[in-house]
Specification:
It comes from Actinomadura chokoriensis. With 118 residues, this protein is mainly β. Helix content is 7%, strand content 45%. The protein contains two helices and nine strands. A six-stranded antiparallel β-sheet has the order 1-2-3-9-4-7, with no helix packed on it. A three-stranded antiparallel β-sheet has the order 6-5-8, with no helix packed on it. A hairpin with a 4-residue loop joins strand 5 and strand 6. The longest helix is centred in the middle third of the chain and has 4 residues. The N and C termini lie far apart (34 Å).
Length: 118
Amino acid sequence: MTEIKSIEKPDDRRDFPRGHLEVVNLSGLVFGKATFEPGWRWTESVKEIAGTDLCEVHHNGYVVQGRMRVQMRDGSEGELGPGDVFVLKPGHDAWVVGDESCIMFDFAGNIGDYAKAR
């Protein structure tokens, strides 16, 4: 069976301050394209929507454009940039670095729960 959908016609779109998420649902795959504008920070833009102090979504992703800094619950930090493939466990804050939008693809499956009111 072949299943094809376009992220340009997502099944769901979630807007939040300084960004948005587009989600496509396929059999066995939930795929997300997230766009974060300069000045976006999870604790300022998504925290109230999620109802948690930190992002509790597991991410498997790929950075298409821009840069993002991530700080884990334990205080450790890292920075993601174009071409980076990453696994990010729950319990983190993140923010856009610089003046360029950060665009990421997420294929962990949990992205279907991101920026969704609980």
